[in-house]
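Deliverable D2.4 — example input (structure tokens):
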């Protein structure tokens, strides 16, 4: 959902964007790359950081883009024109989602370098690249069906998406270096601290440089849209929304004038304001869910029109279902809602 209070944020570069295959200088040793995505959210931001490892000069890449011919071609153009003749020394992934890890295997093989990411997301990516892990297939269709999604065409399409993740992440590097909350990484003589966040991904890693007041926020803090927080079939009673909201508090500890480098949208300042906006957004959604469940027992599919005011395609519907269940689970696990399984096999929620 678009941010109605976006005007409270400041975009230092205005409307300037890097074109595909280009890299825009943001600061000494920091370049912004932007790759296309085949979704309504049509881009991802990737970052080049000037680096030195084991006496070798080069670059660290943060996040990879999906595995596609267009993304590879755009990376090749960046390599030819925007690395100053230097190699890539390491690849870092904020989390396991396809737009962040898709070309991780290709990049690390091409440059003979190591992938750095959290252990939880690395191992989940290895599993997901050879299975579905909540992204589609029969299990996902049955899970959404148990939360009220009954449209046969949508369920058939979800069943057919069993290869959703492997298509965009066909392989994961065989080895990696682990990032954890509080880990500090020297990148080009500057210290970057890892901040683990939960709810959007199992163990998302943001990177903060105190010296330069820079935050590579990944998907944890986005300026224009709210981060997707979903429950999926492999962990049906999860409470990712509470985890996500708790994680947001970590960013209020950072300087208010930090320049945020998000995975989607434009670099911005106003970190504390954006955290407050995200909290208010979810407070409003939770209140809407409570009101709907107070009126009558309600399932997640019945909340889609309440929580999302626009027409959704299938890709958006799967995310919307996961997010609706996340809001219901948060309230249910806090004891504010009661969950009952109907004779039709559908969970409905009402006031406790």
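Example output (designed residues):
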């Amino acid at each position: 959902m678009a941010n109605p209070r976006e005007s409270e944020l400041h975009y230092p570069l205005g409307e300037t964007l890097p074109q595909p295959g280009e890299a825009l200088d943001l600061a000494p040793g920091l370049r912004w790359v932007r790759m296309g995505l085949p979704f309504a959210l049509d881009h991802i931001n990737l970052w080049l950081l000037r680096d030195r490892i084991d006496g070798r000069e080069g670059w660290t890449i943060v996040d990879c883009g999906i595995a596609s011919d267009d993304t590879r071609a755009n990376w090749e153009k960046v390599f030819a024109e925007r690395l100053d003749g230097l190699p890539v020394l390491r690849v870092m992934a904020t989390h396991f989602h396809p737009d962040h890890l898709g070309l991780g295997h290709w990049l690390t093989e091409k440059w003979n370098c190591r992938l750095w990411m959290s252990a939880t997301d690395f191992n989940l990516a290895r599993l997901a690249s050879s299975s579905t892990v909540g992204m589609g297939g029969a299990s996902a269709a049955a899970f959404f069906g148990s939360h009220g999604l009954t449209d046969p065409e949508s369920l058939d399409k979800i069943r057919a998406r069993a290869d959703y993740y492997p298509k965009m992440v066909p392989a994961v590097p065989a080895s990696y270096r682990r990032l954890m909350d509080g880990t500090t990484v020297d990148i080009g003589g500057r210290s970057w601290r890892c901040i683990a966040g939960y709810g959007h991904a199992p163990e998302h890693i943001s990177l903060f440089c105190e010296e330069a007041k820079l935050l590579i926020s990944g998907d944890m803090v986005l300026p224009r849209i709210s981060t997707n927080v979903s429950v999926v079939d492999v962990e049906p009673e999860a409470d990712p929304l509470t985890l996500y909201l708790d994680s947001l508090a970590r960013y209020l500890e950072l300087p208010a004038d930090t320049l945020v480098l998000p995975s989607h949208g434009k670099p911005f300042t106003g970190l504390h304001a954006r955290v407050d906006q995200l909290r208010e957004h979810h407070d409003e959604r939770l209140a809407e869910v409570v009101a709907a469940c107070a009126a009558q027992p309600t399932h997640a599919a019945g909340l889609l029109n309440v929580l999302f005011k626009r027409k959704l395609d299938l890709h958006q519907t799967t995310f919307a279902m996961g997010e609706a269940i996340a809001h219901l689970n948060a309230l249910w696990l806090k004891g504010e809602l009661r969950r009952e399984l109907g004779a039709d096999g559908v969970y409905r929620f009402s006031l406790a």
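The chain is about 35% helix and 20% strand.
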